[in-house]
Specification:
The chain is built from no helices and 13 strands.
């Protein structure tokens, strides 16, 4: 695909904000398959020290049915569960990945909290042409975290897709 992604955790970064955040630069040095790409600059990342410890979250992913072909759809649901017994549901976004590449399915999908308890979900229904590959597609959901919960990633769920036609 045209896009790639990476997750990085910096465990000991001092807090910085008010216009004096950090400037992140990334560079890809290339490999046997891809050419190098110059610096990508992401401007002004503010880092704040949480006022309370963040609780763990878990993300689950379901896909039904597990096989579709041209003209059929698959329903994908990402559910983020917060701490057991908590009354505050996770908020924020889920990003979907197809065979490791970020999808263009409504990028950064906002969670909808359950009517009670500490869970939230996002559901979408997609036709076969929305998947990257004809054949096995390994889908994962990544929850970005919020002011109460840490980020989490689902296990991969498989949808087998038969696509008709051509690009």
């Amino acid at each position: 695909g045209q896009y790639a992604s990476a997750n990085v955790v910096f465990s000991s970064i001092p807090a910085r904000s008010n216009g004096y955040g950090y400037l992140l630069c990334a560079q890809y040095n290339g490999d046997a398959n891809w050419e190098p790409y110059g610096e990508v600059i992401i401007d002004d990342i503010n880092v704040a020290v949480p006022t309370t410890a963040l609780a763990a979250s878990t993300t689950a992913l379901t896909i039904t049915p597990s096989s579709i072909s041209t003209g059929q759809t698959a329903t994908i649901t990402a559910t983020v569960n917060g701490q057991a017994g908590a009354t505050v549901a996770p908020t924020g976004y889920v990003t979907f990945f197809d065979n490791g590449a970020v999808t263009n399915w409504f990028y950064l999908d906002q969670l909808t909290p359950a009517s009670s308890g500490a869970s939230a979900s996002y559901t979408l229904t997609l036709p076969s042409e929305y998947f990257w590959a004809s054949g096995s597609n390994q889908i994962t959901a990544v929850y970005s975290g919020d002011g109460s919960y840490l980020s989490s990633t689902s296990s991969a769920a498989t949808v087998n897709v038969v696509q008709g036609g051509s690009d």
